[in-house]
Specification:
The structure is a homotetramer of 332-residue chains. With 332 residues, the first copy, chain A, is of the alpha+beta class. Helices cover 18% and strands 33% of the residues of chain A. Chain A is built from 6 helices and 18 strands. In chain A, the strands form 2 sheets. In chain A, strands 9, 10, 11, 12, 13, 14, 15, 16, 17 and 18 form a 10-stranded mixed β-sheet that branches. Chain A has an 8-stranded mixed β-sheet with strand order 2-3-4-1-5-8-7-6, covered by helices on one side. In chain A, helix 1 (27-38) packs across helix 4. Chain A is globular, with a radius of gyration of 19 Å. Mean pLDDT of chain A is 93; it is low at 325-332. Chains in contact: A-B, A-C, A-D, B-C, B-D, C-D.
Chain lengths: 332, 332, 332, 332
């Protein structure tokens, strides 16, 4: 077992997890959930698309919802690059490495690059997005959790080491990783100044497990649940409130009306210094919660399909069922 | 089915739920739990007894822990009467009604009256207690939940109507009651200015289900769980966080190291006016939580025995299992 | 100097401070302030009157705003009696004591009794009020401070001992009193289970100093200020945030658009037991804040006139200016 | 007037504001203040030096207190560079630009570089520091504000444009700047992912105005004040609670026992994207608070001297007094 090494001189500059695209069978209901419970703000909407952002975000959207008549999916997860020039470098790099990348037009975004990671995850990059006013101090217009901003994605993949290696080569650092049977079964990767932009756990995949939004503090997360209870979304609470172990944060996981999973979490620790070495956790040694009820089975087993992407089984034969093993990790 | 009528001209003046006595097999561990997690303050302690109070309480103790080598029990639940004179009236009243009452000496308390309710619950009354300084603004000495004060007791009894009728005749009012199969299966009774000093639910009894302490707000309840997680008490979280339905409050239930159940709840609504009529809830109609995971089976079935008191089966044959029915009520 | 003695067998049963009537020159603006910043709910409104209640209150109104073209005033402060019968007893008692009382019709209230206290304060009593649903768990409809309920009034009077004596004879207890030059210059009186329904401080009077609403916790009070800042009411913050001394609570004082003063405070300590003796504070010994900036001069000197009531100078000659002396007490 | 341009290809990589050194005439008292009120943790202490860190910080210290018999001063403000190699590049760069830089040994730090900025501010850089466990989830050991981490410094300088230009050339970006009489009188500069590592305001200088620590949420800041009130530090509250304008945060400013100023603030907005352009604010147009009392005169005029550094008068003649003009900006 060897932990993928971070390339500290990456070929281009990815700065952060920034946006994602989900499909919905009932846009009106999804809009209610995201605006009233999560507290996102609508930046733009049409009959078939809604763009939303956290109250702190100046960037036009961190979540795009698109109408579908089919099974709800995740179309793509998106990252920011620092400059337009980074996009050019990225295209060249991907093409040279056998990953065909193409520039596409995406509304409200600057030049946007699409590529599929070796594990099958559809990725999107842009360096610019339309800017809108921050609304984090417009307290009188806050609703539900008043989610501040998108923080990270969790993706389930069959081979965590392989997925992490791809991103480590692009400059992602590892804050924490989970080991079972001397195999890496979970990894937290980051580019911005906290421990996670992209999290992988070992399960059949690639599948989209959740996107996390930061809320100010515990009462805002509870407020989301109070509002959910009032507006008919009480059953959308899947897991929590609780507190992840390993120094991680307070959490609540909700399923949106289409089943996509959203985590509400507090602002994580700042992580910048070169001194910060990846921290190893043994899953079997009980990488448990600080407190909180055990997650339900659905939290371990259910996830959103990426549009048009086939799911592969786990590469390694787990010695225990993924749910049971993951039940001890409960990370994210 | 008929709801017991409150006697608004009661023979003596009970003012509030005020204290209880629990036994413990490990006083040191219980002390840790109550001082570090719940945040109570020790008013007095010896090798065999610890007296504790909430940080707001001037009265010497709301919880007395006594060392035992046997199964942990609840010795008695205690109420305040307004004046010494009320105790005399109470003794006369109980004696005249075939309930032998006797005055006893209890440390740190004024004259104290013991009587056993018709349902078998051992009750204690006093009008005075040694006074100590309030510590609610001594924030630098607060720990865990910094519980403010004892609020109410919940007792499981085989015949809720009978138990409630006894207390209603002593001036207790009913704020809420739960009906299943046209039988009252739960009742909230109160003397002080909020909806509950004493709560009954139908199950074999009498058994002590929980005592509730008020905490300032949600973060204090969460802080208790954070501390529990740090000090090896994470498994003491039994139920919650969640929010009871029917306008009731945010809750967390913990089991102390001896298994006694403690609820942390927020200050309830003020309830004083004569206009306030008892509110009926149909258990079968889903008197459910506003939000929160379903309580575990233990929460419905486990309770503390009263010292030397036999448990009677429920009078009525429930049409569903008590756990299943109660699962829909989740009150307290 | 002698502290007025409480009549523990009062001639009738006043239960709590419950409502007040203020006049406003701009009802629309006052409505904005009370609903958006304080977070009260409108129970009824016409072109000339608005009835509001806290989100926890079932009683129809705790604040009535009436349109005026004149100087904004306080028409009356209101208390609840327990039963209709208490009103009859009160009328008889007041009439027998040279205080002519009369029954009047007040919308949404049961039979209502008006009387003028010996210090000139216009009082109102009723036992019943129209009941409406509590909205304290309707979190999605909460705004600003989401004030829970009216808690107490503070009235400035020229002779605190005289004013307190009148109410003590009606059953009010004293929780705290302030002494300067061996004269009582402040007194907290209560009927319900906390330290204050009616507070007097020595200044020319009678004048209405403030009404206090309870908010859940500090963040709700801060939220009111955030909203005030967003909606053009930032200048309405007069005093605070801060924390009163003597075990009292966190506070914020705002002036409504007509200049009436509203305190936001946290739920106070429970105070029921006969053991609770009035606590004496020496104003000159620095009965100061736990923390917080000194109140501005306006907070000591400005108050609302009672409709049609003449203001009398203080009976005693203060040895220091009232503002300077009161500056050390900062109570309420 | 022209805003200094950021060098996006800086000669070396400064990553964040990270630590500072203050002197104290009473280490024991300062220790009490920082551990009990601010909630820092002691990483190391001797008779003449105390090293402290926020509860979230893995780096050994963000604040070093050194015993002095003289006037308390700020010895130096410190920043992290990403790699050791950056330090070498920095030395070469500074030396080549007429700013003699020298490597020094500082306990618990890796190789450390000292240089004096053109405005006279003594700067320190290192890339490594001894690592200690994070304590942010050790809630049971948290005190006062439980400050999470150092966030930024504010320095008063006579020529803001000149000071900002020096740092912009080293890669600092400008988030906000304040203009009066077509002169830049305030500037917020940042390297890490929020709007401020280093803030300048125009006044005689260089002088150290404050260091800001991040607290989780409003209640933690209030808790610091509660504790301050209990432990004799109530008079250390200089300014706030309040909320800065321009989308900035809730604040409280305290003066430590030696007079050094500490801000408690909430985690600021995330600021990463190239789209973020510097935002211009006109001081005279009322760049005021969202809410909060006006700061006292001391907040505008008093500051800590840098050790051995002469203070220069402002370059430009202000059209209003600095205090009056700054009173409208209230930034930081």
């Amino acid at each position: 077992m060897s932990l993928p090494q971070t390339n500290f001189r990456p070929p281009f500059n990815i700065t952060r997890a920034s946006h994602l695209v989900l499909t919905s069978r009932d846009l009106a209901k999804a809009r209610d959930f995201y605006t009233e419970v999560i507290g996102l703000k609508v930046s733009d909407e049409t009959a078939i698309t809604i763009h939303l952002r956290g109250v702190e975000e100046r960037a036009h959207h961190s979540l795009t919802l698109k109408k579908t008549k089919d099974e709800p999916e995740c179309e793509r997860i998106g990252f920011r690059m620092f400059e337009e020039d980074d996009l050019e470098k990225a295209k060249a790099h991907f093409d040279a490495n056998g990953l065909p990348a193409k520039f596409v037009n995406v509304p409200f975004q600057g030049r946007t690059l699409h590529v599929t990671a070796p594990d099958g995850t559809p990725l999107e990059f842009c360096a610019r997005m339309k800017m809108l006013p921050r609304l984090h101090t417009a307290t009188h217009e806050h609703k539900g959790a008043a989610a501040l901003r998108l923080d990270h994605f969790q993706v389930l993949v069959p081979d965590v080491t392989r997925s992490a290696a791809f991103h480590a080569a692009l400059g992602f650092r590892v804050s924490d990783y989970y080991v079972a049977d001397e195999r890496i079964v979970g990894a937290f990767l980051y580019r911005k100044n906290n421990p996670h932009d992209l999290v992988f756990f070992e399960r059949p995949g690639p599948r989209f497990h959740h996107a996390a939004y930061v809320v100010r503090s515990v009462p805002e997360a509870i407020r989301a649940l109070e509002v959910a209870g009032n507006l008919g979304f009480a059953d959308r609470l899947e897991n929590g409130p609780g507190h992840h172990g390993q120094g991680h944060a307070f959490y609540v996981y909700l399923r949106d009306p289409d089943g996509h999973r959203i985590e509400l979490t507090l602002d994580a620790v700042q992580m910048i210094d070169i001194d910060e070495e990846p921290v190893r956790h043994e899953v079997n040694a009980g990488a448990a919660n600080l407190w909180g009820a055990s997650p339900p089975r659905s939290w371990f087993e259910e996830a959103t399909m990426f549009s048009g992407v086939k799911v592969a089984a786990q590469s390694a034969k787990p010695s225990a069922s993924p749910a049971d093993r993951a039940r001890r990790a409960r990370s994210g």
